[in-house]
Write a structure and sequence with these properties.
Elements lengths: L2 H14 L25 E3 L2 H10 L9 E8 L9 E12 L2 E14 L2 H28 L4 E3 L3 H19 L4 E2 L1 E7 L2 E7 L3 E5 L5 E3 L6 H7 L5 H6 L19 E6 L4 E6 L1 H4 L4 H10 L3 H14 L6 E8 L3
Antiparallel strand pairs: 1-5, 2-13, 3-4, 4-6, 4-7, 7-8, 8-11, 9-10, 9-12, 12-13
Helix pairs in contact: 1-5, 3-4, 8-9
């Protein structure tokens, strides 16, 4: 199937399914990029308010209960690594309670070495800087403050800033981005493109949290392709949504509970595209540590041919 025919087929299917499925079924009308916003304004909290905030943010989680591993590789068929990854975990003890913060990002650049590598880097920097300034700094300063905006709104604004950073610094390039913000027991996920976020549990469950923004995946969702056909389709990596596209859009943003016993896995398609979910799950569960698991996941992707850059972040949650 030619790419033009694939686009035409998708547009026709989306138009006919608009009433049945209004989520991302048509491109947004062209509008001016959103204006720059100042970092979220905050208000100081007294001792009692800080205590209430920590109570409201969930059951305390000790820092040793979260362990993070990272893995990345250029792969075997690429000369440069156009992916970018970021991981940051911190714990605040206040008034006898712990506030756990985590920020994890995977970005997969596209547009060739000159554009893809820059796109993923500037997008990751823009998003993480905004969230650290808006969430981390106010909560972890000596006199804690809480952002007035909801976390989902802050995540949306962070991704929009990342989008503008790509347009300004890597014209012609683009990148996926999948980010997870952890505050105690809550994960806030922002997602654009076809990198993925999973949760894995010792009882055998494995859930894909994100939705691939690829043309082939959309055709699969509309029943025009089977999962088996989609997995081998020659245009399976063509995206209809990515940072750096000229048309403004809203990222997928949602919240989900962090596993009490289990894992959060973020990765680029250089991993999930060549290693089956069954193998991903088994490697994670068999590994002694998240770092060792990430090493084995990268090794498995390269053993499958390593056709793309490989990036993975694995966060283990222990309920002890």
């Amino acid at each position: 199937m030619k790419l033009r025919n694939l686009w035409d087929k998708l547009r026709g299917l989306l138009a006919s399914s608009e009433e049945k499925d209004s989520d991302a079924t048509e491109p947004l009308p062209p509008t001016a990029p959103p204006p720059e916003h100042n970092i979220a304004s905050t208000r100081p909290l007294g001792e009692e308010e800080v205590e209430h905030l920590l109570d409201e943010m969930g059951t305390p989680i000790r820092p040793q209960q979260v362990v993070v591993g990272l893995g990345y590789s250029t792969g075997l068929q690429r000369e440069h690594n156009e992916d970018a990854i970021y991981a940051n975990v911190a714990n605040l003890s206040a008034n006898g309670r712990d506030l756990l913060f985590g920020l994890f990002v995977v970005a997969d650049g596209m547009g060739g070495h000159q554009h893809g590598e820059v796109a993923s880097e500037v997008a990751t920097r823009a998003l993480t800087q905004y969230l650290l300034n808006s969430v981390y700094d106010p909560l972890f300063k000596p006199n804690p403050e809480v952002p007035q905006e909801a976390l989902m709104d802050l995540m949306r604004e962070g991704v929009r800033r990342a989008h503008r950073a790509v347009l300004e610094n890597a014209p012609g390039g683009g990148t996926t981005i999948t980010a997870a913000l952890l505050l105690n027991e809550q994960l806030t996920i922002a997602h654009v493109g076809d990198s993925r976020a999973y949760t894995l549990y010792p009882d055998g469950r494995m859930e894909v949290l994100t939705r691939d923004h690829s043309l082939v995946k959309r055709l699969e969702e509309l029943g025009q392709l089977t999962p088996e056909e989609a997995a081998v389709h020659p245009q399976r990596n063509v995206l209809y949504r990515a940072l750096g596209q000229a048309e403004p859009f809203d990222p997928d943003v949602f919240t989900t509970p962090a596993p009490k016993q289990g894992y959060l896995l973020l990765c680029s398609d250089g991993l999930w595209g060549v290693v089956s979910e069954e193998n991903l799950f088994q490697i994670v569960m068999d590994a002694e540590t998240p770092s060792r698991a990430c090493q084995q996941l990268v090794k498995a992707a390269n053993a499958a041919g390593g056709p793309d850059n490989i990036s993975v972040i694995l966060v283990q949650f222990r309920d002890k």
